[in-house]
Design a protein that fits this description.
The chain contains 16 helices and 3 strands. With about 450 residues, it is mainly alpha-helical.
Length: about 450
């Protein structure tokens, strides 16, 4: 009688027999339960990664917009960099010149000048023909004034002075608003406890010095206290500051949360490479959606601005200038997503991927062997590179990703530069690995 087939259940509290051999039925049942548990585990991981991926894709465009708004609103340098090109935009310059010209010409009373001239000629006894001619000078005189003012303003607006004044004014005003919204005490304008205050201390010091220099010695006794002026009090200031703090949090942490969710989606998925391809494709699609949304908003904005208020070309220039960094960031992420998906595919078992890898290996191997035959050998370094090829590839790719993360506002050109450097490094290392010398070849030959 086969002892393995006889049931011998242990008594309560006793351990099972370690020498027990499972029967065919028991082994089949065990394999069925293990497969069922594995299927349930894979389903749970697939469901979890799908939820994480969905959250990451929904938050991706919001994170891009939040980071852009936070940069533009809270960073004075970034804001000035955003609006600086408007001063040199021809359409915007034309609007400024035309409106300033109309304002100046409107302040010149040409009618009074012609009336005074007619009155003077009349008092001098000029004939009616001359008086009628003088009265008709209003139109030509107004045109002449308009021409002179327009020419003068054109030289000012299109020169470097206007560019400097434009950037300086925007920098000062933006810094004042940021200080007010953040409650920062730096600068002349500050906010706190529902009040916005202007610090006039520097003005008081200069006025006191000038009064003393002018002979008013008693001005030196002007006290240093009460050097602030309350501009206004509002209950909405606290809400504005809360919104600014929320924007600062969203602009900083929403992109981080999105990246973490995407990484978790890839990590929890049963097939990491496939999920990486899906994630990259999804992020790319969401960036395309964001670009389309920007185009739709642009069209709606241009349709909502009356030409009498702002010409269409000037309105388009203003919109394009303000959102250009958002558009650049979106395009950069789109390119990164495409590159990530392509790399994930090339590491897969597809026929095209295998063909690309084979061609790359043959090219680098042929180049390395050619260097070896010419006397240039990498020796032990090449053998070490050949033995740690996968690890080195991962390090180079991680370094490229780290460079993009540390890059302050990377562009498409920056991504292309990092990608080119990473590919060049990988090619050079592969060539060095193939130029190790005879010892490397002996190690690669299969044993018989």
């Amino acid at each position: 009688m086969n002892p393995a087939a006889t049931p011998g259940p242990p008594h309560g509290g006793e351990a099972s027999n370690p020498d027990h051999v499972m029967t065919a039925d028991e082994k089949a049942e065990y394999e069925r339960l293990r497969r069922h548990a594995a299927v349930r585990h894979r389903r749970a991981r697939r469901a979890g990664s799908s939820v994480l991926l969905l959250l990451a894709l929904v938050l991706a465009p919001l994170a891009v917009v939040a980071a852009w708004v936070q940069d533009t609103v809270s960073d004075t340098d970034r804001y000035v960099e955003t609006v600086a090109p408007l001063a040199s935009e021809p359409a915007v310059q034309e609007v400024v010149i035309n409106r300033l010209t109309d304002r100046v010409v409107a302040d010149v009373d040409v009618q009074a000048v012609t009336d005074a001239l007619v009155q003077t000629l009349q008092d001098a006894g000029a004939p009616p023909r001359v008086l009628d001619g003088a009265a008709s000078l209003e139109g030509p005189l107004r045109n002449a004034v308009t021409t002179v003012v327009d020419r003068t303003l054109t030289r000012v607006i299109t020169g470097d002075v206007f560019q400097q004044v434009w950037e300086g004014a925007n920098r000062r005003s933006h810094a004042a608003v940021v200080n007010m919204l953040t409650g920062d005490r730096e600068g002349a304008l500050s906010a706190g406890d529902g009040t916005v205050q202007l610090d006039v201390g520097e003005v008081v010091d200069q006025a006191r010095e000038r009064l003393v220099d002018a002979g008013f010695e008693k001005a030196a006794a002007i006290p240093d206290t009460d050097r602030t002026i309350t501009l206004f009090e509002t209950e909405q200031l606290g809400k504005a500051q809360d919104a600014m703090r929320l924007l600062d949090i969203l602009g900083t942490w929403l992109p981080v949360l999105t990246v973490v969710l995407a990484a978790l989606a890839v990590w929890t998925a049963p097939a990491h490479r496939v999920m990486l391809m899906i994630t990259a494709t999804g992020v790319g699609v969401m960036m395309v959606v964001l670009l389309v949304a920007l185009a739709v908003v642009r069209r709606a904005y241009l349709n909502s601005v009356p030409p009498a208020t702002l010409p269409t070309d000037a309105a388009a220039a203003i919109y394009d200038t303000f959102v250009r960094f958002l558009r650049d960031s979106t395009l950069t992420l789109l390119v990164v997503a495409v590159i990530t998906g392509l790399v994930a595919y090339l590491y897969g078992p597809g026929r095209l991927a295998r063909g690309v890898r084979t061609a790359a290996d043959r090219s680098t191997t042929a180049t390395g062997r050619a260097l070896e035959r010419s006397g240039v050998r990498s020796g032990a370094t090449g053998r070490w590179l050949a033995g740690h090829r996968k690890w080195i590839t991962g390090v180079v790719m991680a370094a490229g990703v780290l460079a993009l993360l540390l890059w302050n506002h990377p562009t498409v050109a920056g991504v292309a530069l990092v990608l080119g450097i990473a590919l060049a490094v990988l090619i050079i290392l592969a060539i060095l690995a193939s130029a190790a010398g005879p010892a490397d070849r002996a190690a690669d030959r299969p044993s018989t």
